[in-house]
Design brief:
The structure is a homodimer. Chain A is built from 14 helices and 19 strands. By secondary structure, the first copy, chain A, is α/β, with parallel strands linked by helices. Chain A has two domains: 192 residues, 3-Layer(aba) Sandwich (Rossmann fold), CATH 3.40.50.720; 205 residues, Dihydrodipicolinate Reductase, domain 2, CATH 3.30.360. In chain A, the strands form four sheets. Chain A has an eight-stranded mixed beta sheet. A seven-stranded parallel beta sheet of chain A has the order 3-2-1-4-5-6-17, with helices on both faces.
Chain lengths: 413, 413
Amino acid sequence: MKKNVLIIGAGGVAQVVAHKCAQNSDVLGDIHIASRTVDKCRKIVESVREKKSLKTEVKLEAHALDALDVEATKALIVSTGSQIVINVGSAFVNMSVLRACMDTGVAYMDTAIHEEPNKICETPPWYGNYEWKRAAECKEKGITAILGVGFDPGVVNAYARLAKDEYFDKITDVDIVDINAGNHGKYFATNFDPEINFREFTGVVYSWQKGAWQTNRMFEVGKEFDLPVVGKRQAYMTGHDEVHSLSKNMDGADVRFWMGFGDHYINVFTVLKNLGLLSEQPVKTAEGLEVVPLKVVKAVLPDPASLAPGYEGKTCIGDFVKGLKDGREREVFIYNVADHRQAYEEVGSQGISYTAGVPPVAAAMLIASGEWDARQMANVEELPPRPFLDILNRIGLPTRIKDEQGDRPLSFS
Amino acid sequence: MKKNVLIIGAGGVAQVVAHKCAQNSDVLGDIHIASRTVDKCRKIVESVREKKSLKTEVKLEAHALDALDVEATKALIVSTGSQIVINVGSAFVNMSVLRACMDTGVAYMDTAIHEEPNKICETPPWYGNYEWKRAAECKEKGITAILGVGFDPGVVNAYARLAKDEYFDKITDVDIVDINAGNHGKYFATNFDPEINFREFTGVVYSWQKGAWQTNRMFEVGKEFDLPVVGKRQAYMTGHDEVHSLSKNMDGADVRFWMGFGDHYINVFTVLKNLGLLSEQPVKTAEGLEVVPLKVVKAVLPDPASLAPGYEGKTCIGDFVKGLKDGREREVFIYNVADHRQAYEEVGSQGISYTAGVPPVAAAMLIASGEWDARQMANVEELPPRPFLDILNRIGLPTRIKDEQGDRPLSFS
């Protein structure tokens, strides 16, 4: 039975994590929030107090922390008595925070793959470049480390595992589709850290098809999907974390990721990319200042957290799974629909932050209860999906199924 | 009789100025080129030697100079014995270089209005903010300072004066049109310093109409012009230096400036502007680095000088002048057509640099001969246009006239 949560990061997702931990403080215990900018942590603490999100009276504290500093992170884990670390900070700090958890014997979780600032889209499977290199040590030391437990990656991995367990004898195709049909009213903004957002799209698009890694360029392969609630939407094959673990865990099925983009996003992206403004490599100004263009683009774009108040509309994210059941071909769409305004009203964040921030709290609750305290490193599809989806069903991200029998909530009877 | 030229700056325009000074070294004497980066000056020296541009054997030397340092500039003027300074450096150094010229008693010229790095589009007339504040002192000390003597501003001001002197009794409208129908083959590039290029378009568009300053937004007012050689082209009313002196010197005529833009330029510009990437105000990255977005955009764009080798096509720049002559309404188009490839073959620069760099050399020759050694500050339309256009006719920028009598070269018989 582990408890007391240390949240690393203080962006829009961290805000959701803090609120959801507070709403389940009877299970999770104390809540500590740490990031480079302690003021941002304090604002989250204030927001939790304002909305009276704490279910039971526990410690709720803000801390300044450079999460690249392993010793400082270990010290904070120890001094706060945290046994569960939810890392929703920058993707650059994953390996440092994981190290701190392994050294202090506490559970680790993140929602996106580790990245090094100056590299993009390394050799697939991406998890093999950093995280999985620590798998043997985690197993040996009995460290629970759950990788990529946001929505995508995360819940969509659980959907794939659910399909494998319950709906198919053999799966041939997993197509993960992520559509944000919301409108933030700004000229242009990304829904999470622009640096990470653009880095996803500037490199090679990897998909797992016919038992091998296939490569495409971004926006090279487009497809229209007809989805519940949000309707017909154009999406493009995109590189994404979950493809890199599902490629290993879906018994050879093709795994592709599709993200919805409007023409306006593509135009802005294309202009910035062609000009070299999305580059992670430093350039030198005429005045001799070394600067990474992508970091300047991030600096001028709206803070994703600032989009929340005016955000309208819904997201639809899910897995189209094809394969055989009882000798017959079938297709199932397992999905969630979330609402931007509802998310804002509940936790002060927009829908994309909400879908990314609620799942690690569900996972933390399963670590607290022992059900997911795996004492090894795991991607989400390697863990039993039902308990996870059951909690999500209760805390804000219900699962629905659409197949030849219609469109209905996932049943937990 | 002044001679020996100091060129400030080492970009594409400086390259043209150096070559043209060399081709007229019998009149102009020694040639010194100075900029922050002495290597760029050395490359220009090499290029002049390679193309054997020197008409007579004179000194041709490169110097390192921070032109914001008035004392260093004065020292260089004195040590090189330069009596004519052609400032084609950054628009930020105008006032420092002018000061150095006034203190050493030598002639000053530039091709663009002074700008302060952190301000855009100040109160009209722009010349009143900086340059004209030195006019009384120039007159008192007998300093020749010719402002804005590139093509536009510069030659187009002489065209306006020519129209006033020879083609009209009363002028009602001066519409200056600048069309670059060339193609550099890159995704996107500006034809001169991107920082200055974009700064022209991010602020208010000032025009002089009905005896007052009128304001518009960039790309708000568009118009199709049908021009010799380059044909029908879409242009937009744009803020530009020459409007700010012609407003004073054209006896109350309306003065507008129009620049040609393709849809692609407008799209890239619109994306960058709306994102805030054209801002001259510093932003702070997440890592705490202070940086001016526009300087980063400049750093990622192609160096305008690098466009020269592959540049194809022509430019057409001129003045549509309307008014009354002998009681009748008439319209005259006074213009020049330049060719990118021809410019490259002659002086190693593209056409836009060529049209900007040849006029100050013609002006320098008129200062050397005494005809334009005005011993006061002057905008180009305040000086006799015929000698200037006569030299330009001979050294690469011939003037043509189109009116009800047809389309013909300006006659100098």
